[in-house]
């Protein structure tokens, strides 16, 4: 009765799960794209990079500054004039005020401002590729977790089938014992096997539940939400190595980021070289000033007017730092070239190894599919023989365990084939559903 109660509770749990409805892999990906925190954070980084692409941030626009100052003083003053007269005043007040607007505009800095503006645009591209990489990683994690649930759920169904078979065996053993064709030991052995299957089911149900929690976490939604998944793991067995290699060189986000880094290194060389040219800056402004003095030749004064001018400066000698900076910038550019070659080799290596694993897993999936069909047929034949008493309970248990193991290997092979496909598509930068 205790075992039946456990089974009844598990059936209620399954029915509750079904009530939540089916979650397709497309829906899981869509929810993750909308809610995942890593994607949101990466998108915010891109928004910052987009905000930074301005002429003002590159130094192309003038700076306008408003100025205001006021000072007051109270002093005891004594003055001796040129004719010998002396004047003195206690608590003499002196006030001054100045207000104005100044404008400064660098109109030439050796084209460094243009290099900085192009660097800002490259940083925006880098943010786009970083976001793409984050999206690819998240989508791959969601799909792999989803299909792992499918695999483990199918194994759970296989265990349920094994439990039903064990119940049938127990019923048959009890009938045979009641008519004297089997010993009490056989009944007890079958009961132990049934308890073992039910224990396996509890552990497997726990695995499925934890995987669902992980998927809910990737989708950034309530962790306790239950759902059903699709029944089969569908994988693409038509991938071609040459096509994958060609697409990776065009769409792999790591290669794209490295290419952006090289372009930024080229722009940095130009920006550093700008230090050899003069810097020309225009200045202008409008000022109003007033002052009052209790003692002196001028008791009050005020002035207002426009000022303007131009300044030019050039670096004549800075301790050879300009030359050092240029050499370092060129070395960084050489390093960027080397990084591109290195990343290209890494991508080709990853595709080669992943494609080899992909082909192996496809072969294993086909093989285990055949093995699962044979194991299922063998179990049916063995069950009929056990019912008529031509084989022992131990022999039947072996066939039953072989069936579970074959189903487990088949589900695992299909999952590995799917994960290999996902790995290849993530490398080339294009995961389609």
Question: Which short descriptors sum up this protein?
Answer:
433 residues; alpha+beta; Outer membrane efflux proteins (OEP); 2 domains; four-stranded antiparallel beta sheet; 65% helix; disordered N terminus; TolC family protein; membrane; transport
Strand tally, please?
Answer: 4
> What is the H/E string?
HHHEEHHHHEEHH
> Residue-averaged pLDDT, rounded?
88
The CATH level-2 architecture of the largest domain is identified as Up-down Bundle
CATH fold-level label of the largest domain? Outer membrane efflux proteins (OEP)
- What is the CATH superfamily classification of the largest domain? Outer membrane efflux proteins (OEP)
What gross morphology would you assign? elongated
- Rg calc: 40 Å
Helix content: 55-70%
Structural class: alpha+beta
Strand content: 15-25%
CATH class of the largest domain: Mainly Alpha
The first-to-last residue Cα distance is: 46 Å
Cross-sheet strand order for the largest sheet: 1-2-3-4
| Low-confidence runs of at least 5 consecutive residues | 1-19
**Biggest β-sheet description:** 4 strands, antiparallel
Q: How many domains is the backbone divided into? A: 2
Please work out how many helical segments DSSP would assign. 9
Description:
The chain is of the alpha+beta class and 433 residues long. It folds into 2 domains: 319 residues, Outer membrane efflux proteins (OEP), CATH 1.20.1600.10; 68 residues, Outer membrane efflux proteins (OEP). It has a 4-stranded antiparallel β-sheet, with no helix packed on it. Strand 1 and strand 2 form a beta hairpin. Helix 2 crosses helix 4, helix 3 runs antiparallel to helix 4 and helix 8 runs antiparallel to helix 9. The chain is elongated and about 150 Å long. The N terminus is likely disordered.
